[in-house]
Amino acid sequence: MRAPISLLPLRLENVVFAVGDRRIIDDVTLTLDAGTRSVILGPNGAGKSVLLRLCHGLLQPTAGVVRWNSPEVPGGPRRHAMVFQRPVMLRRSALGNMTYALKLAGVPRVERDDRALQALRKVGLEHLAGSFARRLSGGEQQRLALARVWALHPEILFLDEPTASLDPGATQEVEKVIAALHEAGTKIVMVTHNFGQAHRLADEILFIHQGRLVERTPADRFFRNPASPEAARFLEGELPW
User: Helix 138-150 and helix 109-122: axis angle, to 10°?
Assistant: First the structure.
């Protein structure tokens, strides 16, 4: 059986998302290719999380088009995933959360436990497989959410402030998992407010201001010499977070 055609690139063409008369996303055209880790930065209310949800399909644009290179097969496994700041944990063990996600994805029962345990091992949670998921720490829950993703091998992963409520130690552990997912071949697209995290994880920065994509540039160049006055003001702390 031939491998499915890649979902990527993902193309946004003149995308608008409006609530009433307010354009939260305003005429964004963007192509997301495989490989590069793309981090979305911008001040509060810029539209970062809305843009992420439009890409993932949780929201539909008011105008414009969001188009994958190849549509997903109806009834087949999802090849893109999203992890939020506060992931949803089922009333099950960590392993139970994993196997349920694999069940929904259509993975045969005989494969689920081994595949789930392999993913838990990759994020450093195998020893907590039998623990009640909702009693795990915030960092452990976030790594469990990433393990659920890893077990499904998505082509692209959208991350919305995945470490915003975590302490530095837990943040470091989550970042290690994100970096490992990238190394395993998953395209990373992430929203963060953490400049240090953007430095560590980004290959490119997408800077959003007032719903518009103002700047797209390699991460090192963005932090060293932003091309737009809005980005320069943002980096100087003159725009609200």
Answer: 130
Residues 31-81: tens digit of each pLDDT: 999 999 999 999 999 999 999 999 999 999 999 999 999 876 666 667 899
- Please give the residue range of the domain that contains residue 55: 10-87+155-235
Token digits of residue 12: 């946004």
How much is the pTM?
0.94
Residue 19 belongs to domain with CATH number: 3.40.50.300
Question: Which tens digit of pLDDT belongs to each residue from 124-155?
Answer: 999 999 999 999 999 999 999 999 999 999 99
Question: Do residues 189 and 158 touch, judged by C-beta distance below 8 A?
Answer: yes
Does 182 reside within a domain? yes
Tell me whether residue 179 is in a domain.
Answer: yes
Residue 214 token pair: 């103002």
Residue 83 lies in a domain: yes
H-assigned helices in the chain? 48-56, 94-104, 109-122, 138-150, 168-183, 195-201, 219-224, 229-235
Residue 41 is assigned to a structural domain of this protein:
yes
Q: Is the distance from CB of 199 to CB of 219 less than 8 angstroms?
A: yes
